[in-house]
Structure formats: C-alpha cells, structure tokens
Amino acid sequence: MKVIWLIVLCVLFNSPLQAQERKDITVTQLLSSGMTSSRQAIVFPHRDAQVVVSIYDIMPGATLQAHNHAYPRYGYVLSGTLGVNNMETGQTDTYKPGNFILESVGQWHTASSVGEEPLKLLVIDIVEKGQSNTVLPN
Hints:
The chain is mostly beta strands. It has one helix spanning 2-21; strands at 49-58, 63-67, 73-79, 81-86, 92-95, 100-102, 109-114, 119-128. β4 (81-86) and β5 form a beta hairpin.
C-alpha cells in the first residue's frame, strides 16, 4: 500500500513540472484568491457538492434582476463588458474579456451587459447537488 501512495505522489508532483517544461504548452494564471469580489472568504457546500458550468449570452443593455448566491460563483468574461453593482456594499465593478470574477455570496447585486457588444460569460457554480445558486427576492 505504501508503494502505491509513493507512486501517486510522484505522479502528482512530477506532472505539473513536466507540463511547465514543454515549449508547446503555456499556462497563464488568471487569478489566485481566497476572497470574493467583496472580500468574503470562499466557503464550499458541506455535502453533495456539484459543479455546474454555464454560458450566459446577454444582449447589450440587458440587466439581470437583483439576486444573490448561496454558494461560490465564478465568472469569466469571454466577450463584451459586465457591470456588477453590489447593492449592499455600494461597490460597482466593470469586467472586460479575460477578467475572472469571484462573485459575492449572500449579498444582493445586479449584473448588466454594458456597451454595444453582447456579453458572453462563462459561469461556474459549486452547489449542493440539485440546488440553484441564484436566490431571487420574494
């Protein structure tokens, strides 16, 4: 059993090094953070975690109604411009293509497609299995 663990550790520690040494692969880190956009610590669901990946296509000028998220939500702007207004902190942020967002958790905010180009947003949610990550007002 010890031999198997030793092999697993060798593979895990050697694989990233081998990938970095190759000239035909480039890894560009977009973000490294333990905090959301409003400075909250990132906390994951405690049971039955599920990853849900979606693409949002939002026409210019469209605004998503006020909402919040029960669990972490990550976004990556593929095209267009995303505007986010955190109604609880008063913070307004604008994200452009290539920006990665760690959205606030449990704080009401709106999001909109700013400018004349449609917004294409890759969204990654980590939720309890079968649950939505979008909470709307009653």
